[in-house]
């Protein structure tokens, strides 16, 4: 199958938005499992929280914040596209959504260390 | 026309929906040559049985659209120089439509969807009434005008990944047509049409990839039309009209 018609930046932005949603769905069960530890196994939760102090985990968390940002700001972009009068600045909005996600991810990283 | 300089390597998909393959031809390159010129040259000089569809040759009729190097194009207005990759062209029938033979697609489902989207004007007055007075500056008329120059070439339909994943989806062209009528004050089927386009395979399926907008040869924006229909249908739903 040819991918030639999928090289436009707006198509790629939509694809990144979709993938970010799928990756967040994969993350959610882990998230809920850890939250569940607070109720069922405090000792294991403490051990897990110590593990999250490692730099590698903090970088991974920054990635998660980035994914969340991409999905949140990308979602707001789509809502604006569909429910506000049409604007020809779609690529500017898409770039702004990605930039805000990046800023959120870096801000998290700066606070984490 | 100037003398030919080099030979183009042109692969053309030949065959039917069930069985097809690429045949390669060498075609003399010419100045200002279009993809339709290339296909016509192959038929007249190499492959008399090659089937393809065209009529006006000037971008009016919308019958000659094909996939060129993987992208949907109106071939009569697409210059070879614009799309040539390393001296090669790959010409195939439009994506998302059944192939009858070689480069000819069956457009039945494409036009059936226009009917399903209620793409037919429903008059509220007769020929005996006065002309409806609608100013060109009327905002609704301007929205309709911006979308009205569709030539039914199905380039947007071939570019649409939502159609590719869900063949029942009405597609950008039919929904764009519905949008023009939804903005026509003379039309009498406003809520019927909104109900038709917001059914399970209607406008709400659009994922806003914006490929229709990217590839429309007339530079229309079906994504904006579909977004407009989503707004109107949502509003009608909130009012209890759908």
List keywords for this structure.
heterodimer, A: 113 residues, mainly alpha, 3 helical TM bundles of succinate and fumarate reductases, elongated, B: 242 residues, alpha+beta, Ubiquitin-like (UB roll), Fumarate Reductase Iron-sulfur Protein, Chain B, domain 2, 2 domains, five-stranded mixed β-sheet, 10 helices, 7 strands, 35% helix, 15% strand
Walk me through this protein's architecture:
The complex is a heterodimer of chains A (113) and B (242). Chain A is built from four helices and no strands. With 113 residues, chain A is mainly α. Chain A has one domain: 3 helical TM bundles of succinate and fumarate reductases (Up-down Bundle). In chain A, helix 1 packs across helix 2 and helix 1 crosses helix 3. The longest helix of chain A is centred in the first third of the chain and has 32 residues. Chain A is elongated and about 55 Å long. Chain B is built from ten helices and seven strands. In chain B, the strands form two sheets. A five-stranded mixed beta sheet of chain B has the order 2-1-5-3-4. A two-stranded antiparallel ribbon of chain B has the order 6-7. Chains A and B meet through helix 1 and helix 3 of A and helix 9 and helix 10 of B.
